[in-house]
Amino acid sequence: xxxxxxxxxxxxxxxxxxxxxxxxxxxxxxxxxxxxxxxxxxxxxxxxxxxxxxxxxxxxxxxxxxxxxxxxxxxxxxxxxxxxxxxxxxxxxxxxxxxxxxxxxxxxxxxxxxxxxxxxxxxxxxxxxxxxxxxxxxxxxxxxxxxxxxxxxxxxxxxxxxxxxxxxxxxxxxxxxxxxxxxxxxxxxxxxxxxxxxxxxxxxxxxxxxxxxxxxxxxxxxxxxxxxxxxxxxxxxxxxxxxxxxxxxxxxxxxxxxxxxxxxxxxxxxxxxxxxxxxxxxxxxxxxxxxxxxxxxxxxxxxxxxxxxxxxxxxxxxxxxxxxxxxxxxxxxxxxxxxxxxxxxxxxxxxxxxxxxxxxxxxxxxxxxxxxxxxxxxxxxxxxxxxxxxxxxxxxxxxxxxxxxxxxxxxxxxxxxxxxxxxxxxxxxxxxxxxxxxxxxxxxxxxxxxxxxxxxxxxxxxxxxxxxxxxxxxxxxxxxxxx
Length: 483
Hints:
Blueprint: H1 2-9, H2 17-42, H3 87-91, H4 124-137, H5 157-191, H6 197-201, E1 204-205, E2 216-218, E3 223-229, E4 234-242, H7 249-257, E5 263-270, E6 279-284, H8 285-294, H9 296-301, E7 303-305, E8 318-322, H10 325-331, H11 334-341, H12 343-349, E9 353-359, E10 369-375, H13 386-401, H14 406-452, H15 455-473
Antiparallel strand pairs: 1-3, 2-3, 3-4, 4-5, 5-10, 6-8, 6-9, 7-8, 9-10
Helix pairs in contact: 11-12
Region (Disordered): 46-151, 457-483
InterPro entries: CCDC47 (IPR012879)
Membrane topology: Single-pass membrane protein
């Protein structure tokens, strides 16, 4: 108010008043920045809110450039006790078009410790990373579905192969099963029906006691059995046919690479009093050597027999393993040489012969047995093995009536006695080993039990053992009464 009064007091009178007012306004316009910038130095704690709007520079019509403006830092008049920063720092800050903005141009270092001097600015890196993050967060548009192409037959190759294999496997199962059954029935119809070889030599054929009982017993898709009994010198006969696994496709394919034969094995259970000391085997040379090494009774009693001089002998493809030359000569008679084992007969009728083994020391439930192994021909050519099957009843009678000479009997008895002693020693050794093993186990159990006992229990046990030893060491005295 004093300011305005002072101005009015200096106004001139007359026509120069208007020029004077214009000059005064221009002077105030130029002096206003200096006054405003100097105000904080003279008035400590001056608040920006106390500035009168009338102190703002008055715009003029003179085309002069707009004056420079400064922005004041707002602080609490009560808490601030320090001078504001120099005017040259504040003057370098750009003007804020919005007076109500809460951003500050600078900070008091002593009043606000730990706060940066300049407000954080948005750097281009932050803007770019934010832009990249926003671009990543945006969901990508779903790709357009590709048109489905129709599947061809080549896409189902695995399925076609599996289904084809399954169909072939099922068909082969039933066809192979039928082939094996037809082969077994062809053999039975040839050798086990009325007026056949077994019907003439045995009184009971088949697995049952009645005449209507089946001749064959099927134990598997490729295993068939035939039983016959009711003949002298033997308790019975069991024939086992082991045919190819024609029902199994994999086995059939394997047999194409590694061929095998359909086999039939005859096991004749001889009576105990109908068979003397006979151990002999006949087979192809390689097979005969294998039998002599692997079969126990042949390994203990028999050896390869060299062809005798001055008489007919078996074909060159065959070999004989026997306990003595006498037994070999008696078992290979002139009849069997002419029928099967001779050179000419073997080429024609002995193609299906595999081996035969006679022994009174056979391992198993029956010690005295005759075993024949033949290969089965096709169902249409079953008559080719007629002479081979005829060997079974022939040897039953031959072995049942056979008796060794006294010289050969002495040798066989000595060999059997020696083998019996060896077997007894083996059994004794086995018993001793078993007994020692049992004692070792008991000792181990006792040691384990003692390890678990306490010290007091161990002392009591030791005292008891010492007392027993002392009692055992004392001399025995007998008391007698005198009358």
